[in-house]
Write a structure and sequence with these properties.
The structure is a single chain. With 194 residues, this protein is of the alpha+beta class. It has 2 domains: 63 residues, Alpha-Beta Plaits (2-Layer Sandwich), CATH 3.30.70.100; 115 residues, Homeodomain-like (Arc Repressor Mutant, subunit A), CATH 1.10.10. 61% of the residues lie in helices and 9% in strands. A 4-stranded antiparallel β-sheet has the order 2-3-1-4, with helices on both faces. α3 crosses α5. The chain is globular, with a radius of gyration of 20 Å. The N terminus is likely disordered.
């Protein structure tokens, strides 16, 4: 008897960016009796191929929740790039010590220039702009938590200086980091006075 090793099949899901999305996907897989090994940001690993009917139903069910099961290779690659960036910036305690380009290239096994060109072509913004937008979102999150000062945030997100972080923050949001933090404090003060 020949033993065939379990081959994992990967399905890719667009807009899957949070724990809530992961739980929703797991729920839909259970409803359709699709056995999975891993459900992570943007990816589902299953041990056996699914029928066309199961794939169609999964696609429909996910769409109802704002998620999209991907079929074409370019879309799948774009989602992989986005997931690596989101994971790197939002879900890692510390950013990689290597350049973002080297990290993304190594993680996905493609040349960064190739990844960057495809990303720009499909998304209409550069991969570098996408990374900057996510870094600024992380800065906003850290400013709202009010646990770190700007120097610590700058160091944590590997900005060359506080001035660089501040300039990039203002360019993206139109506000300075200190003004952004003050807005949060004013909102809290207003709520307390109700």
């Amino acid at each position: 008897m020949i033993v065939v090793p379990n081959v994992k099949i990967k399905l890719y899901v667009k807009y899957m960016v949070s724990l809530r999305c992961i739980l929703k996907v797991k729920d839909e897989l259970k409803k359709l009796r699709i056995r999975y090994v891993v459900v992570d940001l943007g990816v589902i690993e299953i041990l056996e191929d699914i029928t066309d009917e199961q794939r169609k139903q999964l696609k429909l069910n996910l769409l109802k929740s704002g998620l999209e099961l991907l079929d074409d290779q370019r879309s799948i690659l774009i989602e992989k790039i986005k997931n690596v960036v989101v994971e790197m910036i939002h879900y890692s305690d510390e950013l990689p010590k290597v350049n973002y380009s080297d990290y993304i290239s190594e993680k996905l096994g493609y040349d960064y220039t190739y990844l960057s060109n495809i990303f720009s072509e499909v998304k209409g913004i550069t991969l570098q702009q996408f990374i900057i937008i996510h870094r600024i979102e992380k800065v906003k999150e850290l400013l709202l938590y009010d646990e770190l000062n700007l120097t610590e945030i700058s160091y944590r997100l590997q900005y060359s200086s506080v001035a660089h972080l501040s300039n990039q923050f203002k360019k993206i949001t139109g506000l300075t980091p200190s003004f952004y933090r003050q807005l949060k404090q004013k909102r809290q003060g207003n709520l307390e006075n109700l």
